[in-house]
């Protein structure tokens, strides 16, 4: 069977991250506040989850469907990918996010009254947090939610997990993460997703961008180190009431 080259994998990561940023941020910029019919936090959260779910099925078999530098680094920490993949993956993801934000900017700027400085779905803290949450709150929630996100990814893609369902679990996890944290940071858990809009907003968005690289990567590396420890634990012996035979998984 022919192996995918790093160019194929990077291309898949570019396309997947483009869709994540264009679909997720696009729903926030174009549809969330539409008069009387806006989709709100619920709709934006679902949009982000659907972008990952759909692209994981579309190109996940090529690259693994990371679409997120934190995921790539976390998977490396868990020894799921080689170090040589990190730079090509991250570059493709960041470029995909910037191109998506550029296309979204072209579309959104066609509307009278559009003001990119209003936020453009950028992530922020303090006065730039949707709920005015401070730096500490933003840092903690980004670390914790990225940690949980990577734990779900690592578990759903484990060789012991049911085959074919990982994109559903991962997409729903990202939806839930957004439902929790949009009021705090506008939800990042993804440095590329944060970088794309910040490039076009400039100013405060670029000044605060460091947090949305540092915190997600800390959370992802933590999960990458913790999850393999769980995988090494022996499976419990099961004794049913009907039979004293001790059962164990053969997986």
Question: How would you portray this structure in words?
Answer:
With 251 residues, this protein is mainly α. It has nine helices and no strands. α1 runs parallel beside α4 (86-108) and α7 (191-201) runs antiparallel to α9 (211-231).
For the largest beta-sheet, the strand count, sense and barrel status come to:
none
Question: What is the CATH class name?
Answer: Mainly Alpha
Q: Report Rg.
A: 19 Å
Under the CATH scheme, which architecture would be assigned? Up-down Bundle
- Low-pLDDT ranges: 238-251
Structural class: mainly alpha
Number of strands: 0
Amino-to-carboxy terminus distance: 24 Å
**If you consult CATH, what is the topology?**
Glycerol uptake facilitator protein
CATH-wise, what's the superfamily?
A: Glycerol uptake facilitator protein
Question: In short, what is this structure?
Answer:
The chain has 251 residues and is an all-alpha fold. It has helices at residues 6-31, 40-63, 69-77, 86-108, 135-156, 166-185, 191-201, 203-207, 211-231.
Question: What brief labels describe this structure?
Answer:
251 residues, mainly alpha, Glycerol uptake facilitator protein, 9 helices, globular, disordered C terminus
Record the SSE blueprint.
Elements: H1 6-31, H2 40-63, H3 69-77, H4 86-108, H5 135-156, H6 166-185, H7 191-201, H8 203-207, H9 211-231
